[in-house]
Design a protein that fits this description.
By secondary structure, the protein is of the alpha+beta class. The protein is built from two helices and nine strands, in the order H-E-E-E-E-E-E-E-E-E-H. The chain has a four-stranded antiparallel β-sheet with strand order 6-5-8-9, with no helix packed on it. Strand 2 and strand 3 (about 85) form a beta hairpin. The longest helix is centred in the N-terminal third of the chain and has 42 residues, at about 5-45. The termini are far apart.
Length: about 230
């Protein structure tokens, strides 16, 4: 190998080393730049990672008024089987298709005191509460959808009046006085007088003619006997 070839190889080797060094330097500089840019971005625009999950609702009713609960009714007395409980009343209402829950509120109107306020599941359509007889009670029921939005409450109130029981008055006893049987007295009757039959009526001439005709027939009959 000549000296010129050795020098060429050495120069080429130096150039390759320089190229590798420059490449590594550029790569290192580019990584530092990206790291600085990322740090600057995190400082200026913080990334929000705590994002609340969307609400799972029924039929997409998360922001829609569920509507008014219909046919809210206070029923007194409370009928338990075949017996009537005059110390309790019940509140009933119709099902609301958009309701996830119901907010129930019972108020004693006479004292303006809330005796019950609670949230019940959508499958509950009635509730029983204690009452003071002859006081007035109001029941309010509002539908709540799955997003917690409450609708207009249905309202009903009633006086829990105890009807007075009317005792039947005893029927008067009627005493029947026996009546005396009247005795019939027969009055004397007059004797019946029988009159003899009257002879047939007719004129004197007719009687004489009949008698004469009979006499003539008698004479003719006698004459015939002697012949």
């Amino acid at each position: 190998m000549s000296k010129r070839n050795i020098i060429a190889i050495a120069v080429l080797f130096v150039v390759l080393l320089g190229a590798i060094f420059v490449t590594l330097f550029l790569m290192s500089s580019n990584q530092d730049t990206r790291s600085d840019a990322s740090t600057s971005l995190d400082t200026t625009f913080p990334v929000i990672t705590d994002v609340p999950a969307p609400l799972q609702t029924q039929s997409g009713q998360e922001s829609t008024d569920p509507g008014t609960v219909e046919n809210v009714s206070v029923n007194y007395p409370y009928i338990n089987g075949d017996e009537a409980d005059f110390t309790s009343a019940s509140c009933t209402w119709d099902s609301n298709i958009n309701a996830f829950q119901y907010n129930l509120k019972v108020t004693e109107v006479d004292t303006n005191s809330v005796i019950k306020e609670q949230v019940v599941n959508s499958g509950v359509l009635s509730d029983v509460f204690d009452v003071v007889p002859n006081n007035t009670y109001r029941c309010e029921v509002a539908a709540i959808n799955s997003a917690g939005v409450a609708g207009v409450a249905g309202v009903d109130e009633q006086v829990c009046e105890v009807q007075a029981e009317v005792s039947p008055s005893p029927s008067p006893v009627v005493t029947v006085q026996p009546t005396a049987t009247p005795t019939a007295t027969l009055a004397p009757q007059a004797p019946v007088v029988t009159k003899p039959p009257l002879p047939p009526t007719g004129s004197v001439g007719t009687i004489a003619t009949v008698g004469l005709g009979g006499l003539i027939l008698l004479l003719i009959g006698g004459a015939l006997l002697f012949l």
